[in-house]
Structure formats: C-alpha cells, structure tokens
Specification:
Helices cover 33% and strands 35% of the residues. It has one domain. By secondary structure, it is α+β, with helices and mostly antiparallel strands. Strands 1, 2, 3, 4 and 5 form a five-stranded antiparallel sheet that branches. The radius of gyration is 18 Å and the shape is elongated.
Length: 108
C-alpha cells in the first residue's frame, strides 16, 4: 500500500512539473508575441513565476493558475515590467507597464 501511495505522489509531482513547464513556455511565447506586436524588446528571453494557485476554468474544472512576470524595453535602456496570467497553458491576461510608443518625443 505504501508503494502505491508513493507512486501516486511521484506521478502527481511529475504531472505538476510538466504542466508548469508547458505553462512557462506558453507564457514566454505570449510575452514575445505581445512585445513584437507593440515594437518592444522582450528582455532576457525568460519569464518568472510569481504566483501559483488553484482556480476554476470557464467550464468549471479546477486548474492551476500561474502568474508570470517578464521585462521589456521600449527604448533599449529602460526596463519595464509585463505580466502574463495562465490557466494551465491557456492565457487569461497579459499586461504591460505603461511605456512611450516609438517615435514619441521625451517630455521636457
């Protein structure tokens, strides 16, 4: 019986790790795509998970919601923050810190 319980824990842990990797890869693709659309540079080619919690999908199923943060630049010198919220590997939201669009003169 102990072996069965250990096998279940191992299987659950393995699933959790692979689900996290899949969500992270999707968040990287989404962040890069959003930056490309707005003419921004996606920095460090990575995202960082800052929150993991259980949540309900629109269909009512329990899934894991993860919030990832990343950095981008609008002028190649300033680092700005972005955020991607994923439910499993499905994007729920993406937010970019306010930035100055290309070609806009600096204030002052």
């Amino acid at each position: 019986m102990l072996e069965l319980a250990l096998l279940a824990v191992f299987a659950g842990g393995t699933w959790f790790v692979f689900d996290a990797l899949r969500a992270r890869e999707a968040a990287v693709r989404l962040g890069k795509s959003e930056c490309h659309v707005h003419g921004l540079q996606f920095l460090d080619d990575t995202v960082r998970c800052v929150r993991t919690r259980p949540a309900r999908s629109p269909a009512g199923h329990v899934a894991i919601e993860r919030t990832f943060v990343f950095e981008f630049s609008d002028d190649l010198t300033t680092r700005r923050a972005g955020r991607v919220v994923m439910l499993a590997a499905v994007p729920l939201a993406i937010e970019l810190e306010p930035y100055r669009p290309a070609g806009t003169p600096a204030p002052g």
